[in-house]
Write a structure and sequence with these properties.
The chain has 256 residues and is α/β, with parallel strands linked by helices. The protein folds into two domains: 174 residues, 3-Layer(aba) Sandwich (Rossmann fold), CATH 3.40.50; 72 residues, Helicase, Ruva Protein, domain 3 (Orthogonal Bundle), CATH 1.10.8.100. It has a seven-stranded mixed sheet with strand order 3-2-1-4-5-7-6, sandwiched between helices.
């Protein structure tokens, strides 16, 4: 990737003194090199054994850099942090493989030991969906924004990569919420409810929700009324706060 964009990605991390960073998909080490100069401790994770070995050689003289050859989705954050004595907080950064980008975000956002922040290079379309405002929300936006404040920072043109990909990329930052918008024990129920709400996103909310929850339309009209929401709206128009208000009214339908 063009070094100008690598520098902007490293800047987006806003690294503080004594900060620990996990880099996902270190590759040939271009971003790793910039992060190694800024992070107190850097754990570079690379799944390709050949690239991982080259990284170990390249950074052998950097005691603050640890290279792991592993599939990030098969490692828990605790597996990684246990290699560093006394480390409990960390950030995540990386050029995520497009086909598992959202899976990596979920992996960390739902981890027992969550990061403080994530800076991710993703497919532009996916980044836009995650950071979407009310009016353009999807289930993915609700899911991610439940757990973190998401912002699309800047886009990267295909020509900045070698070889250039067929899709445009974007860099986004997610600042993990210290407390989710709903109680921790209800996150799975809330997500099930939100997913039901988007069962038929082109339909009116009352119809989409009834279809997703498999309940009579009259039950949905009642809970929409109690939540003070117009059932003729489309699911994508609801803000996160409206989803949580609606969930509180529908809790018994989801948790039963």
């Amino acid at each position: 990737m063009d070094r100008r964009y690598l520098s902007r990605i490293a800047d987006a991390a806003r690294l503080q003194p004594q900060e620990t960073v996990i880099e996902v998909g270190a590759g040939s080490g271009a971003l790793t090199s910039l992060l190694a100069d800024r992070a107190d401790r850097l754990i570079a994770v690379e799944v390709d054994p050949r690239l991982a070995e080259a990284l170990k050689v390249r950074f052998t003289g950097r005691p603050n850099v640890t290279v792991l050859c592993a599939d990030i989705l098969e490692l828990s954050s605790r597996d990684i942090l246990d290699r560093l004595d006394g480390v409990s907080s960390y950030g995540v950064i990386g050029n995520f493989p497009y086909f598992i980008g959202t899976a990596i975000l979920r992996h960390f956002l739902r981890a027992e030991d969550k990061p403080i922040w994530l800076v991710a290079t993703l497919q532009d379309e996916v980044a836009q969906r995650i950071a979407a405002p009310a009016g353009q929300m999807s289930y993915l936006a609700v899911e991610m924004q439940l757990l973190a404040e998401a912002r699309l920072l800047f886009r990267i043109p295909s020509r900045a990569f070698r070889p250039p990909p067929k899709v445009r990329s974007a860099v986004m930052r997610l600042d993990v919420r210290p407390q989710p918008v709903v109680e921790v024990g209800e996150i799975a129920y809330f997500l099930r409810f939100a997913q039901a709400g988007f069962a038929a996103p082109r339909k009116q909310l009352r119809n989409s929700l009834a279809q997703g929850l498999r309940v009579p339309a009259g039950d949905v009209v009642g809970l929409l009324t109690r939540a003070g929401l117009d059932g003729s709206r489309r699911p994508q128009t609801l803000e996160l706060g409206e989803w949580t208000s609606l969930f509180r009214e529908a809790r018994t339908l989801v948790t039963a």
